[in-house]
């Protein structure tokens, strides 16, 4: 099972127990957080696509640590003008671990599966009676 979820303005493909680096979140280390903006949900081949988000679906995660990313060098130059600017940047990141993905109506779907076979049996029974009645008419 995996989901595509929007976290801090970026979209991530996540699954259970996956560690992800996202832009800095305001939550403290060790906090449990939930993301409700699930854009796509895949449950063993059954794909649910949101418009724009899947209602009732959420992704739970735990904040592991806050850190800074690798240094990125920004270098600007204009040739033949003597213009050079060198600047560095380190992005503030948060590492989270996905603890679970909840699909919308997970308990309701199980109840519908139990009710479905009962309706099929009631539908099949009259067909058999009709078939038996047709056989009796042909024999007479």
From TrEMBL:
<dbReference type="GO" id="GO:1990904">
    <property type="term" value="C:ribonucleoprotein complex"/>
</dbReference>
<comment type="similarity">
    <text>Belongs to the bacterial ribosomal protein bL21 family.</text>
</comment>
<feature type="region of interest" description="Disordered">
    <location>
        <begin position="107"/>
        <end position="140"/>
    </location>
</feature>
<keyword id="KW-0699">rRNA-binding</keyword>
<dbReference type="GO" id="GO:0019843">
    <property type="term" value="F:rRNA binding"/>
</dbReference>
<dbReference type="InterPro" id="IPR028909">
    <property type="entry name" value="bL21-like"/>
</dbReference>
<dbReference type="GO" id="GO:0003735">
    <property type="term" value="F:structural constituent of ribosome"/>
</dbReference>
<dbReference type="InterPro" id="IPR018258">
    <property type="entry name" value="Ribosomal_bL21_CS"/>
</dbReference>
<dbReference type="InterPro" id="IPR036164">
    <property type="entry name" value="bL21-like_sf"/>
</dbReference>
<comment type="subunit">
    <text>Part of the 50S ribosomal subunit. Contacts protein L20.</text>
</comment>
<dbReference type="InterPro" id="IPR001787">
    <property type="entry name" value="Ribosomal_bL21"/>
</dbReference>
<dbReference type="GO" id="GO:0006412">
    <property type="term" value="P:translation"/>
</dbReference>
<keyword id="KW-0694">RNA-binding</keyword>
<protein>
    <recommendedName>
        <fullName>Large ribosomal subunit protein bL21</fullName>
    </recommendedName>
</protein>
<comment type="function">
    <text>This protein binds to 23S rRNA in the presence of protein L20.</text>
</comment>
<dbReference type="Pfam" id="PF00829">
    <property type="entry name" value="Ribosomal_L21p"/>
</dbReference>
<keyword id="KW-0689">Ribosomal protein</keyword>
<dbReference type="GO" id="GO:0005840">
    <property type="term" value="C:ribosome"/>
</dbReference>
<keyword id="KW-0687">Ribonucleoprotein</keyword>
<dbReference type="GO" id="GO:0005737">
    <property type="term" value="C:cytoplasm"/>
</dbReference>
